[in-house]
Amino acid sequence: MSLGDRLQWLDRHVNLEAKAGKVGGLSLDRMRTLVDALGDPQTAYPVIHITGTNGKGSTARMITALLAESGLTVGTYTSPHLERINERISRNNEPIDDDDLADLLADLERLEPAIGVTNSYFELLTAAGLKWFADIAVDVAVVEVGLLGRYDATNVCDGLVAVVTNVGHDHTDGLDGWSARIAEEKSGIVKPGSSLVLGETDPDLLPIFQRAGAREIFERERDFECESNELAVGGRLLYLRTPQAAYEDVFLSLHGAHQGDNAACALTAAESFFDAPLSDDVVRAALASMRVPGRFEVVGREPLIVLDGAHNIEGAATAAATLRDDFKADGETILVVAMLSPREPMPILEALDAEDASVVIASSAPSPRAVPPEDIAKAAEELGTQAIVEPDIATALERAKRLADPEDAILVTGSLWFIGAARALLASPR
After folding, report:
1. Cα(209)–Cα(83) distance, rounded to whole angstroms?
2. The predicted structure's pLDDT at residue 429
3. Which entry of 15, 148, 220, 348 is 20 to 30 Å from 171 by CA?
4. pLDDT tens digit string along 84-121?
5. Whole-Å CA distances, 376 to 171, 353, 361, 363
6. Angle, helix 3-10 to helix 98-115, in steps of 10 degrees
7. Residue 23 φ/ψ, nearest 5 degrees
8. How many beta carbons lie within 10 A of that of residue 95, not counting itself?
9. How many Å separate Cα 419 from the centre of its chain?
10. Under CATH, to which class is 3-219+257-272 assigned?
11. Which residues, at least 6 apart from 168, have a Cβ–Cβ distance to it below 8 Å?
12. Region 179-183: what's the mean pLDDT?
């Protein structure tokens, strides 16, 4: 049967990505039962495991590029996808093809009655990715956590290297001690004897990660960092210091100063995996060819049109800073925004500097968790900004383009579900 048939079966399972609110009964028992029935494919290759509030997707792609440029076959598992589910499972950054994914899901459908448990949508996709990596005999898998870490389905993997990019305001109630609680959950991916690349620099959180049991910890700003990060045409020019080497005048083909920190984490993780520095040629080739769809992705000029999945406060502030610092548009800024609950519109809009925008076009993400665009527009108006409600994504984008002059900038931002739908209209080859 076709991939479409298999996806209909998959969609009948609980999809926590589409469910708002708290999730109870956290456990890895169902996931362990599933991978055990598959022969524990996650043990067939070494794993680099990545978590963090922001930047983990970009960091995963950079690590993949560095390892692939070094001559390895690299399986990469990420989430969520933007346009096609195949994006989540890739080999050397090339998504799995429809037939292979359909076969994997068919195997899982046949297996489900025999193992006595019903897994979630994310658990089944994770198992499919881990199984495919074993089937195609990857040299290493780069696995991105879906949510937090300790009870994430990906944590059936024992990462040889664990990466924590940062700890920020997401999936939290914001009450006292929230950052420590999130750090505890993220530290759950660190396995005894592994190496930890720690991008978070809050000294109060360091003891939490020290207790996690890593053989060695590489701390950003102590053991590695992006020492120089300058604007360049089409990206950034970096000086990267790692525990084993220094890499000068490295061009990174991504926008935003924050990508320098992600590059430093990725390079340190790759070095830790090899226990050796990488050659300058490998680093330059890998980072100069980077592409991360939906992460400050320029899809139009005159007016400038940018897609960025800034789905939390830190991400929104980073998007605003990148637009301001990297592009310095002469005209006005138009925001096209959609987001998912339980996020509140006001803090996100404030972080986006919405009060300085000429207009906020409030739209709706294609998800049952979509925040009503009327709520987004109301928050924008409370900030003193003109707001327009356009629930339909295509209509919202066309409205923004009609309002924009050639020197203006349109920032399409918010939920990755929204960015994926917008990208299908603005950036896809078709």
Report:
1. 35
2. 47
3. 220
4. 999 999 999 999 999 999 999 999 999 999 999 999 99
5. 20, 14, 9, 8
6. 40
7. -110, 125
8. 17
9. 13
10. alpha beta
11. 53, 54, 312, 313, 314
12. 95
DSSP states of 312-361: SHHHHHHHHHHIIIII--SS-EEEEEE-BTTS-HHHHHHHTTGGGSSEEE
Where are the CATH 3.90.190.20 domain residues in the chain?
297-426
- Give CA–CA dist 82/315, Å, rounded: 17
Residue intervals in the chain for CATH 3.40.1190.10: 3-219+257-272
DSSP conformational letter for 369: T
CATH topology assigned to domain 297-426: Protein-Tyrosine Phosphatase; Chain A (3.90.190)
Question: Residues near 290 by Cβ (< 8 Å), separated by ≥ 6?
Answer: 61, 62, 65, 235, 252, 253, 254
Report pLDDT digits (tens) over 324-381: 999 987 899 999 999 999 889 999 999 999 999 999 999 999 999 999 999 999 999 9
- Locus of tokens 């327009």: 388
| pLDDT of 20 higher than 80 | no
Q: Per the structure block, which two tokens stand in for 58? A: 């970009």
Q: Which residue shows structure tokens 């959609």?
A: 338
Residue 276 tokens, joined = 């050796």
Whole-prediction pTM value? Answer: 0.95
Residue 291 CA to residue 333 CA, distance in Å, equals 24
